[in-house]
From TrEMBL:
Its cofactor is [4Fe-4S] cluster. CDD domains: Radical_SAM (cd01335). It is found in: Cytoplasm. HAMAP family: MTTase_RimO. This is Ribosomal protein uS12 methylthiotransferase RimO. The gene is rimO.
Length: 445
């Protein structure tokens, strides 16, 4: 929970934020508005007059975690407002916790704020309750998530996000650029662009053109990246769907305008499984494109996620996936054993994979990729990497290179970070001296 504000005479709200970066941005917006209205944000259940729980409902384990968090808030405080993805399944929440005050879905800011007002009327003093221009951030001061759209037009058979968040709705590009500008003026050094599908940005508004800083920009991924490059900070793209037009942004990466980093979920490599997933299936073309991207931008880091044990996946199809890993030589990879999500079309597919087989395939997959990731990190030993410092820990600085997104990738441990005078938010050139399966080790001086 965020640090409490100065006054003790104000209504106090506790906040529990679960789920993905999209949910985190929703939490930031709600928290910002609560502070604007004079609410005090407190870090413990005991101090709170009411508790808001922003939930996740993506997979069964996230549902369980959300229900547990609601239960804990009910037991510790008793006045609980629920919002977020799991809010779309009111019956599930009501059944487990009938006493919650209100339930709303993702991005339903009005409902959450209305529920807080009903439980705890605001007392606003604009002279005391100053909110930074950048709003309340849950991330460190030097990086921030930038949400460019809501919803998704795809219908991947394992996913229920479109039914929870609806079809794609893009924010106008000038609005996003203004928000990014404000963030960088507030000290942000790295912008993490998020959405459900970053490469589809603007398709719903037919790439409408808008003005920013006296220049026309289309509401389109490439134009957005060009605008963001004017701000002189790192820009990292997440959740890029494997469309052919991803090719368009590789030159921006090669020119240093955009971090040479693609978070692009491939999910599988067998054309038949990809078809069952309702995802692009031409894996040969994907491999060719990866090769071309790397030719144009040799520093490119590719992060991806995969699902193993999808219904009907045969041993041979799983082997195709392992072969793809060998060919693609991805830098960072996350994987999940398929788990049926309530309401997903994939649940109706025949031949579910036995749980033990799924786990065995997941272990083989991770083992195969661990060797690849470790070798790719080892190849950086001896190089100098531009890094952004996240924290100082004793003598060490914990930093990230251009290849490392916060929370999901590794770090660069700088052994002489304190001696070199590094501080969180600083950029520094680090000589890489060693590596392991996840992290790099180096020195600044
Ligand atoms: S692209 Fe992502 S959010 Fe959209 S349906 Fe597929 S998995 Fe879900």
């Amino acid at each position: 929970m965020p640090a409490p504000a100065a006054s003790s005479a104000n209504p106090k709200v506790g906040f529990v934020s679960l789920g993905c970066p999209k949910a985190l941005v929703d939490s930031e917006r709600i928290l910002t508005q609560l502070r604007v209205e004079g609410y005090e944000l407190v870090p413990s259940y005991d101090d709170a007059d009411v508790v808001v729980v922003n939930t996740c409902g993506f997979i069964d384990s996230a549902v369980a975690e959300s229900l547990d968090a609601i239960g804990e808030a009910m037991a510790e405080n008793g006045k609980v407002i629920v919002t977020g993805c799991l809010g779309k399944r009111e019956d599930v929440i009501r059944q487990a916790h009938p006493g919650v005050l209100s339930i709303s879905g993702p991005q339903d800011y009005d409902s959450v704020l209305g529920a807080v007002h009903a439980a705890l009327p605001p007392r606003h003093d604009p002279f005391i309750h100053l909110v930074p221009d950048t709003g309340i951030k849950l991330t460190p001061k030097h990086y921030a998530y930038l949400k460019i759209s809501e919803g998704c037009n795809h219908r991947c058979s394992f996913c229920i996000i479109p039914s929870m968040r609806g079809d794609l709705v893009s924010r106008p590009v000038d609005e996003v650029l203004r928000e990014a500008e404000k963030l960088t003026m507030g000290g942000v050094r790295e912008l993490l662009v998020i959405s459900q599908d970053t490469s589809a940005y603007g398709v719903d508004v037919r790439y409408a053109e808008r003005q920013w800083r006296g220049r026309a920009y289309q509401t389109r991924m490439k134009a957005l990246c060009e605008g963001l490059s004017e701000l002189g900070v790192w820009t990292r793209l997440h959740y890029v769907y494997p469309y052919p037009h991803v090719d368009d942004i590789i030159p921006l990466m090669a020119d240093g305008k955009l971090l040479p980093y693609l978070d692009i979920p491939f999910q599988h490599a067998s054309p038949r499984i990809l078809k069952l997933m309702k995802r692009p299936g031409a894996i040969d073309k994907t491999l060719q494109r990866i090769r071309r991207w790397r030719e144009a931008c040799p520093e490119l880091t590719i992060r991806s996620t995969f699902i193993v044990g999808f219904p009907g996946e045969t041993e041979a199809e799983f082997e195709e996936l392992l072969d793809f890993l060998d060919e693609a030589q991805l830098d960072r990879v996350g994987a999940f054993a398929y788990s049926p999500v309530d309401g997903a079309k994939a649940n109706d597919l025949p031949d579910p994979v036995d749980e033990a087989v799924k786990q065995e395939r997941l272990a083989r997959f991770m083992h195969r990729q661990a060797g690849i990731s470790a070798a790719r990190l080892e190849a950086k030993v001896g190089s100098v990497q531009r890094c952004l410092v996240d924290a100082i820990d004793g003598e060490l600085a914990i930093a990230r290179s251009m290849a490392d997104a916060p929370e999901i990738d590794g770090v660069v441990q700088v052994q002489d970070g304190r001696a070199a005078g590094l501080r969180p938010g600083d950029f520094a050139d680090i000589t890489i001296l060693g590596s392991d399966a996840h992290d790099l080790y180096g020195e600044a001086l």
